[in-house]
Specification:
Blueprint (H helix, E strand, L loop, with lengths): L8 E6 L2 E6 L3 H17 L8
Antiparallel strand pairs: 1-2
Amino acid sequence: MRSRERDLITIEDEKGEQYLVGLTDPEERDPILGAYQIAVEATPADGEFS
């Protein structure tokens, strides 16, 4: 069975260079995904924005 774990990446800047870095720590990743889910659920499904 496949894991339902979600990937989340962030952009880190080092000496003017930007890199994509995966967030693998659940304590850092899970609150971000939870907030994203709340925002998605609060967005109207019909595409109209107030």
